[in-house]
Prior knowledge:
It is a single chain. The protein has helices spanning 9-19, 21-34, 42-54, 115-136, 155-161, 214-228, 267-288, 307-320, 327-337, 342-350, 385-389, 411-417, 420-442, 444-458, and strands spanning 58-61, 70-76, 80-86, 140-147, 170-177, 189-198, 237-244, 255-264, 291-300, 394-400. The chain has 480 residues and is of the alpha/beta class. The strands form two sheets. It has a six-stranded mixed beta sheet with strand order 1-2-4-3-5-10, with helices on both faces. A four-stranded antiparallel beta sheet has the order 7-8-6-9, covered by helices on one side. It starts with 8 loop residues before the first helix and ends in a 22-residue tail after the last helix. The protein binds zinc ion. The site of zinc ion has 4 residues, from loops.
Amino acid sequence: xxxxxxxxxxxxxxxxxxxxxxxxxxxxxxxxxxxxxxxxxxxxxxxxxxxxxxxxxxxxxxxxxxxxxxxxxxxxxxxxxxxxxxxxxxxxxxxxxxxxxxxxxxxxxxxxxxxxxxxxxxxxxxxxxxxxxxxxxxxxxxxxxxxxxxxxxxxxxxxxxxxxxxxxxxxxxxxxxxxxxxxxxxxxxxxxxxxxxxxxxxxxxxxxxxxxxxxxxxxxxxxxxxxxxxxxxxxxxxxxxxxxxxxxxxxxxxxxxxxxxxxxxxxxxxxxxxxxxxxxxxxxxxxxxxxxxxxxxxxxxxxxxxxxxxxxxxxxxxxxxxxxxxxxxxxxxxxxxxxxxxxxxxxxxxxxxxxxxxxxxxxxxxxxxxxxxxxxxxxxxxxxxxxxxxxxxxxxxxxxxxxxxxxxxxxxxxxxxxxxxxxxxxxxxxxxxxxxxxxxxxxxxxxxxxxxxxxxxxxxxxxxxxxxxxxxxxxxxxxx
Length: 480
Ligand SMILES: [Zn+2]
C-alpha cells in the first residue's frame, strides 16, 4: 500500500528554492557583474525576464515607456499577488568581491545598494510560488514586476501612472540591508530636478567683462539654497551636485548644470520647498544675467506601511530561521567591518530606533528577528515602492546582508552583495517572500485585513502622480 503525502504549499516552495539555489545565486551574481545603471539595465532585465518566461510566465517587456521594465504574470483569476524586483546599479561604486575598497574599474557603476539580490530574490519567489500553486491547484495570479531605475528615475512611478498596479491585491518587495527588518516607518517623498544655466562665453583673462558665467549662477543658486535650509522643516533634506561647471578656467562657462533632490515627509512639503528653490534659481539667473531652465526628473510619494503583511513576514522569517554563516563568510565580514569606525556603527544602529538596538552594537551581523517597529516614524531615504504602497497593501522588508553599522550606497554594500553573505540573504529572502505570498493567497481573511488597513491609512488622502503627465522616462540621460 502506498501512502501519498502531499507536501504543504510552504514546504514545497522552501524545497524548490533549496533545490534551485545554485541557479538563483548564479543569476544574482551575473546581475552584480553587469552592474547596469537605471534605464539601461538591458542585460539584467533580460536575464530575469527570460528566466521567468522559461518557467511559464507570460512576460510583457518594455512597459510604461521603459525598455528595461517588464511584467511577468502567471495564473488565473484573483487574488493578484505582486512581487517587485529591482536591478539597477549605482554610478561610481565599482567594487571587487574583496573586504576592502578596490574597484573592478574606477569610476564605473557597482551594486552599492544590492539590487542584484533585490531583483533575484523576487524572481525566485515568484517562480517558486507558481510551482507550488500549480502543484496544489491553487487559484490566483502571481505577478512579478521588473522595476528599473529605482535609484534615480523612479521607474515604479511610471508603472503606477500607466496602471500596471491597478488590479494588484497586495505587493511584496525585499531589499538587502544590515538588519532583518520589517519596519512600519514611512519613507520621505522626493522631487528630482535639474537646473540648466545659460550664459555667454568669453576669454576669462582677456575680456571677462564680455562673459556671463553660467557657473556663477549655479554657485549662487547653491548658496541661496544653503541659506534656505534654516527655514525649512527639520525633516527636509536637500542635496545637489554640479553636473557641469565649464570646460577650462580660461573660458567663462557658457553652460552649467546642477541636479537637486528635495525630500520631505509629505508631498505638499516637497512641493513647497521645490517652488521656493525655483525662485532661488531664477534669482541666481537674474543676479548673473544668465538664463535658467528647470527640468523635472522624477518624483516620489512617502511610503504607507502595512502592519498585517509586516507581521506575516516576521512570522515567516521566524519559521524559516536565519541563515548560518560559514567561516569564510565570517572572515570576510570581520575584515570588512574593520573599515567601519565604532562611532559610525553606533550612529547607524541607533538611528534605526529598533527597540533594544543597544544589543546590536557589539555584534557583527544581525542575528535576531525583531517584531515590526517604527509606526509613526519616517526614515530619511526615499523609494518608488512608496508609490506602489498608495495603490495596494505593500511591504518592503530587509534581510541581513551587510555587517551592522554599514552605510548604504557604499563599496561595502557592493562587495557584500556579491559574496556568500549576499547569497545567504538572497535565498532566505526568496523563501520569506514566497511564504508570505502563500499566506495572502490562501488566507482570504488575512488579505482582507491587509486591505482594510490599507484603506484606513489612505482614507481622506488622494494619490496624484508626482510626475506630470507630459514627462516621460528620461531614456537618453546616460547618453547626454
Ligand atoms: Zn536600494
